[in-house]
């Protein structure tokens, strides 16, 4: 068998990640341009998305390093009960509109949670299970708030 269950997980996620092209020099405008390019059918009516490459992922450098609690890129959210990401408003002025734009084009939009540019992995804010849990809760809240479909984690 293929491992497919009612059409779910029939193929691996296929698409594009911002880090591979832009590294840390990414912005909402660049992401929208890539979304347009992924769905462009001007060549023979075929697009990357129509071939199955329909996921566009935002990797690192959307966050405001050092501007949050104890020098992190997080602030406490009473609404989520966790630490949510502080977004760089100069480069990502409206993250929800960006993901909505992608969805309107028929794309899925992925998020990144390691945030290697900020180098918080050894930060004192992750020293207890409760602190780590509060960060995970905030991360999930951010994914829902901004309309992301998936998350990338790696070992940078």
Structural commentary:
This protein has 4 helices and 6 strands. The protein is an alpha/beta fold. The protein has a 4-stranded parallel beta sheet. A two-stranded antiparallel ribbon has the order 3-4. The longest helix has 18 residues, at 129-146. The radius of gyration is 17 Å and the shape is globular. The mean pLDDT is 87.
Strand content: 5-15%
User: In this structure, how is the largest beta sheet organized?
Assistant: 4 strands, parallel
Cα distance, first to last residue?
34 Å
Overall pLDDT confidence:
87
Shape by Cα distribution: globular
Structural class call reads alpha/beta
Q: What series of H and E elements makes up the topology? A: EHHEEEHEHE
Number of helices: 4
Strand order of the largest sheet: 1-2-5-6
Radius of gyration equals 17 Å
In total, the number of strands is: 6
Q: Unreliable stretches, pLDDT < 50, 5 or more residues?
A: none
Q: Helix proportion of residues, in percent?
A: 25-40%
Task: Tag the structure with descriptive keywords.
156 residues, alpha/beta, 4-stranded parallel β-sheet, two-stranded antiparallel ribbon, 4 helices
Layout of helices and strands:
Layout: E1 15-17, H1 18-22, H2 28-38, E2 55-57, E3 74-77, E4 82-85, H3 95-104, E5 108-112, H4 129-146, E6 150-152
Parallel strand pairs: 1-2, 2-5, 5-6
Antiparallel strand pairs: 3-4
Helix pairs in contact: 2-3
Summarize the structure.
The chain is of the alpha/beta class and 156 residues long. The chain has helices at residues 18-22, 28-38, 95-104, 129-146, and strands at 15-17, 55-57, 74-77, 82-85, 108-112, 150-152.
